[in-house]
Design a protein that fits this description.
mainly alpha; two-stranded antiparallel sheet; 5% strand; elongated; disordered N terminus
Length: 161
């Protein structure tokens, strides 16, 4: 399967930091999962070194079959709205520091004026309730990726018969 951002960590495949980025985004990101099967034939990994390289005999060798499928967009509004109803509105970060003002530091936990830059981590630290939200977001993505990956691997295997 493919787990682009936030690769494998801990008990889950995605780190809760992925959920944090989604939860605090100024505009809700569109998350569209994808999975692939067959890339190991195009970009094989050397069993000794672990280095990935391009297949040597692309032309004239065994036919390459790579299958890529995209899943449905994953939404998080229900999780975020439930969290905000219970714990208050989440802060959001600005898309760039150029558009930030001094008061943005207080309101949004960002990197506004120079006086407040030193306390960035104090605002970036997460409460246990926020971490629970981030984990729920990451888990939703994992579940969709796992289901999509199983489907793609099975379809790839059937087409190879």
């Amino acid at each position: 399967g493919s787990y682009g951002i936030g690769r494998v960590s801990g008990s889950g495949k995605l780190r809760w930091g992925v959920g944090k980025l989604i939860a605090h985004a100024p505009v809700r990101p569109r998350v569209v999962p994808f999975a692939h099967a067959g890339m190991e034939n195009l970009l094989p990994q050397d069993p000794d070194s672990g280095i990935t390289g391009l297949k040597r005999n692309i032309i004239g060798g065994d036919p390459l079959r790579v299958l890529v499928r995209f899943g449905a967009e994953i939404h998080f509004d229900d999780l975020i709205e439930a969290h905000e109803a219970k714990h208050g509105k989440l802060w959001t970060y600005a898309s760039t520091t150029k558009t930030k003002r001094e008061e943005d530091d207080v309101s949004y936990g960002g990197l506004g004026g120079g006086q407040n830059r030193g306390n960035f981590h104090g605002r970036w630290d997460s409460s246990p309730e926020e971490k629970e939200l981030y984990s729920k977001i990451a888990t939703r993505i994992e579940e969709q990726l796992d289901a999509l990956t199983k489907t793609v691997v099975a379809e790839h295997a059937r087409k190879g018969e």
